[in-house]
Amino acid sequence: MLSLQLRLLALALAAWTRLPAAAIAHGSDAAEARARSLRYLPLAGAAVALPAAVAYAIAGLWLPHEASLLVAFGVLTLLTGAIHERGLAAWCEDLAARTRTDGSFTAAGATGLLLVVLGRFESLSSIDPSWIAVTLVTAAVFSRGCAVFVLGDAIAIDGPRAPGPRAPDGAIALALGLVPVIAAALWTGNLEGFGTAAGLSLAAALLVRRTLAPRRLPRDERALGAVQQLAELGFHLGILATLSIADETLADPAS
């Protein structure tokens, strides 16, 4: 049982990151195993976000806040292969293709991706540097748990006829995503901030799901990427909003 779970974890790392886990995952690459490995997608998020947070901290010794963030984003892109960003861009293209008939939707993917990535960057650049590492990690982990939980057993990453995750897989993914959020909230004492961030992240994920069925959009890795990216943006915005409100309250206690 333990060896199976380790293989599923390795398969999640091999499928959703560029980390060298393929050798461990060997023999578990069947469609059903790939689908079930989504339960560990949050751990794959932690595996790429932790090095990005370390890279930010090291770069911050010499570089300004914004430049250090670019370094962290670069590390994230290298470690994930931008797989979720590509999924978001493809999902935006699919969404535009079903709402226009004149063929002028080729820029939809690039536009959607640009807005989301810029939103994430601007949100983080507006946060005090002491919050960046914990926000990077918790957002990466929770957004992936949200994506698997919200799309549920309807995810078909290997095609519409391939088996999807089982019902408990989404619950396991969400639970794994919640662990660092709860830990960070207790560690920092900012229960409102991380609670708001998790709520906005889940709301963004549900919003994407709401667009799938009426437009007959597939629930494949494109949808998974879209949910993850928008959920991560929602998390960043939640942290930014609560920290901004707290700063204003401290600056003007009478308000």
TrEMBL record:
The keyword ATP-binding does not apply. Coiled coil: none annotated. Its cofactor is Mg(2+). Pfam families: CobS. It comes from the Bacteria. InterPro entries: CobS. Its EC number is 2.7.8.26. The chain crosses the membrane at residues 43-62, 67-84, 131-157, 169-187, 193-212. It is a multi-pass membrane protein. Keywords: Cell membrane, Cobalamin biosynthesis, Magnesium, Membrane, Transferase, Transmembrane, Transmembrane helix. GO terms for cellular component: plasma membrane. The keyword Membrane applies. GO terms for biological process: cobalamin biosynthetic process. It is found in: Cell membrane. Pathway: Cofactor biosynthesis; adenosylcobalamin biosynthesis; adenosylcobalamin from cob(II)yrinate a,c-diamide: step 7/7. GO terms for molecular function: adenosylcobinamide-GDP ribazoletransferase activity; cobalamin 5'-phosphate synthase activity. It catalyses: alpha-ribazole 5'-phosphate + adenosylcob(III)inamide-GDP = adenosylcob(III)alamin 5'-phosphate + GMP + H(+); alpha-ribazole + adenosylcob(III)inamide-GDP = adenosylcob(III)alamin + GMP + H(+). Belongs to the CobS family. Joins adenosylcobinamide-GDP and alpha-ribazole to generate adenosylcobalamin (Ado-cobalamin). Also synthesizes adenosylcobalamin 5'-phosphate from adenosylcobinamide-GDP and alpha-ribazole 5'-phosphate. This is Adenosylcobinamide-GDP ribazoletransferase.
